[in-house]
Amino acid sequence: MDASQSIHKSVAALVERGLPFERLKQAPWIEAIETRLGFALPSSLRVLTTNYAFPAMSVGAVELFANLGDSADDDFTIAPFKDSRLSKWLQANRRIQFARPTTGSYDPVCLESRGSLSTAVEAFDHEDILLGRKKVKSAVLSPSLEELLQHAAA
Fold first, then answer.
1. Whether the predicted pLDDT of 114 surpasses 80
2. To 5 degrees, how large is the angle CA 70–CA 77–CA 5?
3. Which pairing describes strands 95-101 and 52-53: parallel, antiparallel, or unpaired?
4. DSSP letter, residue 115
5. What's the pLDDT tens digit per position in 10-24?
6. How many Cβ atoms are within 10 Å of 115's Cβ, its own excluded?
7. DSSP letter at 40?
8. Are 94 and 54 contacting, i.e. CB atoms less than 8 angstroms apart?
9. What is the C-alpha to C-alpha distance for residues 96 and 110, in angstroms, rounded to an integer?
């Protein structure tokens, strides 16, 4: 099963469990985010955000940013860019923050932009980034966005 099919299947299972994903006809704000980043979203995140609207919600160990395009503080159009020091470091390292830990931590939860390849869901130590440390610690939360959603749907 490819990444796109996996995302759609997992979202369908999450909807059955009562999570509020709704089908989108278009999401013009995604292209604006990619322009602002200077690179395309990872394919799995692009499939999720161009096909489904959803409020901020917990999925497994992460709280997804909302994807409503409404410019709220927790929306995908605003939240990844709120802290300019974090977002500059993440952009320079081709990471896109799409969530935060459900623990309330300030650590950004990200995917790396590598085109069609699935990348691990990682949480980066925000203090390492903000203090300008040469080595920034990260923790892998899931091998991929697809697996994060599959696990939450199981």
1. no
2. 100
3. unpaired
4. T
5. 999 999 999 999 999
6. 10
7. P
8. no
9. 5
Residues in the chain: 154
pLDDT digits (tens, 9 = 90+) for 32-78: 999 999 999 999 999 999 999 999 999 999 999 999 999 899 999 99
Domain that holds residue 121: 3-153
Q: How far is it, in rounded angstroms, from Cα 106 to Cα 83? A: 10
pLDDT over 90 at 115, yes or no:
no
CA gap 90, 96 in Å, rounded: 7
Cross-strand bridge partners of residue 96 = 111
At 3, give phi and psi (nearest 5°). Answer: -60, -40
The structural domain count of the chain equals 1
Instruction: Indicate which CATH number applies to the domain containing 47.
Output: 3.40.1580.10
Query: Residue 127: CB partners within 8 Å, gap ≥ 6?
Result: none
